[in-house]
């Protein structure tokens, strides 16, 4: 098997070293700049103190949900606490998003070694970046805004009235900061190819992204536009635990630079620390499974066995699986090219490839179950080798041996690739988060148990089969899309292209889509859930709430950021009289 350029000659090796060198320098400069911003903010924050020792409400976390709650809460006495620093304008450039992973603005989480999946990754571990910055994970996500359908939430709430209240976020279009993103030819071709198989434009389309004039726009940006004089936000401050006294959550214990202090909340403490952060914080506060807490020497305040359980994530497969004959009009070098950066800031942002969030087309497919969709496609115009192996393979944790055997040869041959990910939307496998120790600065144990249910493997194989059909349609053939004919290392024992081969492939190339949810699920009682679905209050504690992606009982049939916003809005609408809730814009 040989890869060739258009005129049949292999490209010169110099172009390979050029990409690697160029990219390495770009990444180095970007990392230094981000680090510099980080330390400037950090030193600045060390000199600030909270103005008061007591507030009506304390919101923990300024991410997607936390900043939305802060925007909408009808209270003028609120403290927002964020473990990360302030954001800066450079981070608003959409295409820089992979550069933020692995910096000080990321929590650097990774999963435990997986037995049934992630075989192509070092120690079978998946990396889980998450935002540690004002704006949270919305600051480093791909910005796809998913408009969810009521059908997906039919078993989330106890009554129809609650479901109606939750759906108001989507039905009233409360988030209007969306634009159609940058696309290459690939997005159009993919959609056309799917249409020739009978899919409609409601199923395969160019997604909306959360940008304004080509710049990233998060709920934290939105919060910056509202005038809330009684609000205070502290950054670079870690909430260590919630202090519950006589069944009432009364204060939070926080720390910064070795200093610890307590801040009281008169009416409520709202955890919006994310799927990992909120579960971890409850466990450190003595709210969780009693036996587990006892082993770590943490006194149990409320025995809630479901804290940390029910962890679910969207996963996908396929990198360098689809080759493309003709290169597209977006080169990975664009990300760090000074000329491009200059044009972005001086010209029309939206026309620049830097306004690109990574994904140019999506597709939703149903296999006829209880959900609107079972499989999603995301189309990206590059592959993990496109940056010369400088950065992407590290953030995806690819083993060196696999890199040299499978990915690097493509790069050396100058073979262009694209990424079309089939995504498992409703996994049957369940994982959990537990504490590693009673030290609050230790990362928790994250075990998603990817692909422990065979049905999950099956859906991904169906996705690959459908992708084969799509790439065989005339529009895709014309663009020169074809499946990579090289067997994946470790799977050569299976007949190529058999279901057994694809099972091995899926278990090797298991990519997270970064959508973990469910660790503080909502429901009706403390036996089946962590918070009440009627108002998101933690069972058995007064004045303590969780409102973020962790309360989702299951995954939505698409990207979850908008659903985290809807949960935040639901929290506000459920706990404050309608007349007092901030007017809609
Ligand atoms: C690479 C990547 C790409 C993604 N792409 C998309 C996409 O295209 N579309 C989409 O819909 N979704 C996407 N997502 C997922 C989406 O961004 C998340 O589901 C969403 O941001 C979750 O919001 P949240 O409010 O629950 O948590 P977060 O936004 O993570 O907010 C939690 C905040 O709490 C802070 N915090 C945590 N613990 C503490 C503590 N102890 N003390 C103080 N502060 C604390 C954190 O620093 C953080 O700021 C992506 C995620 C990633 C990582
Ligand atoms: C990773 O998976 C492989 C393949 O199943 C297995 O042989 C290996 O022991 C696993 N490694 C770890 C660290 O669990
Ligand atoms: C659909 O939901 C019903 C009722 O909750 C359940 O019995 C059934 O197993 C579900 N079907 C699938 C395919 O999950």
Based on the model shown, name its key terms.
single chain; about 575 residues; alpha+beta; eight-stranded antiparallel sheet; globular; membrane
Give an overview in words.
The chain has 585 residues and is of the alpha+beta class. It has a domain at 1-47. 29% of the residues lie in helices and 18% in strands. It has 15 helices and 28 strands. Strands 7, 17, 18, 19, 20, 21, 24 and 25 form an 8-stranded antiparallel beta sheet that branches. Strands 1, 2, 11, 12, 13, 14 and 28 form a 7-stranded mixed beta sheet that branches. A 3-stranded antiparallel beta sheet has the order 5-8-6, with no helix packed on it. Strand 1, helix 2 (64-72) and strand 2 (78-81) form a beta-alpha-beta unit. Helix 4 (160-171) crosses helix 15 and helix 12 (454-471) crosses helix 14 (499-508). The longest helix has 34 residues, at 13-46. It is globular and about 65 Å long. It starts with 12 loop residues before the first helix and ends in a 10-residue tail after the last helix. The relative contact order is 0.19. Bound molecules: flavin-adenine dinucleotide and 2-acetamido-2-deoxy-beta-D-glucopyranose (2 copies). One 2-acetamido-2-deoxy-beta-D-glucopyranose binds at residues 113, 119, 123-124.
SSE inventory with pairings:
Blueprint: H1 13-46, E1 54-60, H2 64-72, E2 78-81, H3 97-100, E3 109-110, E4 127-128, E5 144-145, H4 160-171, E6 179-180, H5 185-195, E7 204-205, E8 208-209, E9 211-212, E10 215-216, H6 219-225, E11 231-234, E12 238-245, E13 248-256, E14 259-271, H7 274-284, E15 287-288, H8 290-295, E16 302-303, E17 315-316, E18 322-324, H9 338-346, E19 361-365, E20 375-380, H10 392-395, H11 400-412, E21 416-424, E22 432-434, E23 445-447, H12 454-471, H13 474-479, E24 481-483, H14 499-508, E25 511-512, E26 522-523, E27 531-532, E28 544-546, H15 561-575
Parallel strand pairs: 1-2, 1-14, 2-11, 14-28, 15-16, 26-27
Antiparallel strand pairs: 3-4, 5-8, 6-8, 7-19, 9-10, 12-13, 13-14, 17-21, 17-25, 18-21, 18-24, 19-20, 20-21, 22-23
Helix pairs in contact: 2-6, 2-15, 4-15, 12-14
The chain binds flavin-adenine dinucleotide (FAD) and 2-acetamido-2-deoxy-beta-D-glucopyranose (NAG) (2 copies).
One 2-acetamido-2-deoxy-beta-D-glucopyranose (NAG) is lined by residues 369-370.
